Amino acid sequence: MFVLPREQTELFEKQFLSENAxxxxxxxxxxxxxxxxxxxxCFQRDRDRILHxxxxxxxxxxxxxxxxxxxxxxxxxxxxxxxxxxxxxxxxRALRLNEDLTEAIALGHDLGHTPxxxxxxxxxxxxxxxxxxxxxxxxxxxxxxxxxGKGLDLTEEVRDGILKHTNMIADTKEGYVVRxxxxxxxxxxxxxxxxxxxIMTEExxxxxxxxxxxxxxxxxxxxxxxxxxxxxxxxxxxxxEVSDAYTALHRFMFDFVYTNPKCKSxxxxxxxxxxxxxxxxxxxxxxxxxxxxxxxxxxGIDRAICDYISGMTDGFAIxxxxxxxxxxxxxxx
Length: 333
Hints:
Blueprint: H1 5-16, H2 42-51, H3 54-58, H4 77-94, H5 99-108, H6 117-127, H7 134-149, H8 156-163, H9 173-196, H10 207-213, H11 217-231, H12 240-258, H13 261-264, H14 267-283, H15 290-299, H16 301-310, H17 314-325
Helix pairs in contact: 2-5, 4-5, 4-9, 4-11, 5-8, 5-9, 6-14, 7-8, 8-9, 9-11, 9-12, 10-12, 14-16, 14-17, 15-16
């Protein structure tokens, strides 16, 4: 008797995943129910919807830490997302959680991020009367903005994990894993990029931190992930020594890199650029593309402008700014 691939996966989940895992057959479903895919579970289907959407592709041209880096090997928002996904899947697999759900959340968690990284996010948060947070925008992207306003119609578990990946506790263990994977990924690749940029060296990291976490990116990630796995899926925590060392490492990076005038000097320009774009569209709402004009009628001018600007890549934001505010040279002689 032929068993559909999706049903085989669902059976595997029931037999081998932890009692802490979210089984795909137990999903709360979508807002608009659809026929099950014969090949993929609902969470695998969500993963594919995210992978094939426009917002995911645009992440390759959005800043992670260093604005519009010229070098080929600096992280972008896309490579950050892939690293988060890899770490999250490793943790979920070890804890026998649902790896497909974990992957879908990880791939979608930063879809709403602005151009110019957190500098762009801070700019929109200061400008918008309602505030702006990338995790809320990521949910808005998958619910409303993608597919020309139709949204991706993801399952409730993936939506929850995307919304709560920064500062809330997700309803599923898989969503909570992504929150840990996010911080493990960014602290380590930010060190890597900062060494490449000449901002710091590995030797600058205090010895009391490297003694616990290790002296290389690979060692640190292994230590952090191993500690989390040892804590178990029920509570999902690192042991005190590792957690304290991570906190000290984050404090070091904040002082040494994240607030370093040398690597953050261009952020003021980026924030000013976004502020000018925002102000321009507030006073020239008719200049928004038709799709965002329709959003303005539905959700208000501010929300539509935030949707438009946050969806821009670094390069598109710069070109838009040039077209609006930099005079063109006269070419006829």
